[in-house]
Write a structure and sequence with these properties.
2 helices, Tumor Necrosis Factor Receptor, subunit A, domain 2, alpha+beta, TNFR-Cys domain-containing protein, 16 strands, about 220 residues, two-stranded antiparallel ribbon, signal
Length: about 220
């Protein structure tokens, strides 16, 4: 009775032990064999058997494997088709395509050796200046113009114009426009001309009245 119980416990113990795992460069086939992996650039076309080793096949054009594997098919090569991306390195049987950003864009989703998503550099607004221009890895950094200066194109801030003693300020400056100055002497001349025209018209009117009176 006791011996039978010991045998049953031993059997359960053996059955409960996990199956041994395959080696580092092996994969388990559907039949349970530990098969040698295929090298990079290849994929499995037939699992190993008790008598035969793994049969490997080269990756078709447009696909790749970049490490030893037990895959039945290779991975598709990445296409650099997004806006602002270009192909820096073409796909090979052993490595994926490497994409990078064109000028005027920066990488929003960097990867180990490339980029999968690009975005156009921001344009600073009027009233701002470009503190740091955009690069391939960072967007443009903008900064508001300090008081007393303005910017129209969002590139650089310019100090307001200082009106001279002979000028007067027609319009105040803002963050997007300069001060407008006008010549005080020009205004004086314009006033004198207006007054002169008024006197001339008055003299002519008086002369006409006198002429008409003498005719009567």
């Amino acid at each position: 009775m006791i011996s039978s119980l010991l045998i049953l416990v031993g059997l359960v113990s053996v059955l409960s032990e996990p199956a041994s795992s395959c080696g580092e460069k092996e994969f388990r086939s559907k039949d349970g064999f530990c098969c040698p992996m295929c090298n990079q650039g290849l994929h499995v076309s037939r699992d190993c058997t008790e008598d035969l080793g793994t049969k490997c096949q080269p990756c078709p054009e447009g696909t790749f494997t970049d490490k030893p594997n037990g895959l039945k098919s290779c991975s598709s090569c990445t296409l650099c088709t997004g806006h602002g991306l270009f192909t820096r390195h073409n796909c090979t049987a052993t490595s994926d395509t490497v994409c990078w950003v064109v000028d005027g864009y920066f990488c929003r989703a960097p990867e180990i050796s490339g980029c999968s998503l690009a975005e156009k550099h921001s344009q600073c607004k009027s009233g701002q200046k470009t503190k740091e221009p955009g690069s391939s890895t960072a967007d443009t950094v903008c900064e508001d113009c300090p008081p007393g200066s303005f910017s129209v194109d969002g590139l650089n801030c310019t100090r307001w114009t200082e009106c001279s003693e002979s000028e007067r300020r027609e319009r105040d400056g803002s963050s997007v426009s300069d001060v407008v100055c006008s010549s005080a002497s020009r205004n004086h001349v314009a006033s004198c001309c207006s007054f002169g025209l008024f006197l001339l018209s008055l003299i002519i009117a008086t002369f006409i009245k006198v002429f008409l009176f003498t005719q009567n």
